[in-house]
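Hey, quick one: can you model this chain's 3D structure?
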Amino acid sequence: MSTTSNGTKKVTEATSPRTARRLTRERLRAVVRELVLDGQPVPDWHEHAACAGMEEALFFPVADGGPLGVERIEQAKQVCAGCPVRNTCLADTMARESPTARYCVFGGLSAGDRSRLYADLRTRAFALDATGESGAVA
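Sure thing. Here's the predicted structure for all 138 residues.
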């Protein structure tokens, strides 16, 4: 943005890298919803989750590393594997969580798994931006 002689702000073609990342993050969230939920809003899915009523500590391992953390993550992923709302849980989590503050197991993926998925989806979104494609799924 720049300021005109009368003090009003005008948008310039140049967009700051931070704004570009924010737009891309929002676009990524839309892409996740489009791909996983066919563009529909996230339904109230919590009551249908396989983990409903289970001990939450299983899905919130104290540490991602070490034998106990790895074992807990694998146990949580096993619960998620048979969950009827797994994709919805993952889409909802990916759309809401901060890329810099991931934790727990959601949608069958650990925080590390989701970080890698987010990075892959972000790379794809940048590639689509570069080609001018909309990214919409037919």
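One thing worth noting: The longest helix spans residues 17-37.
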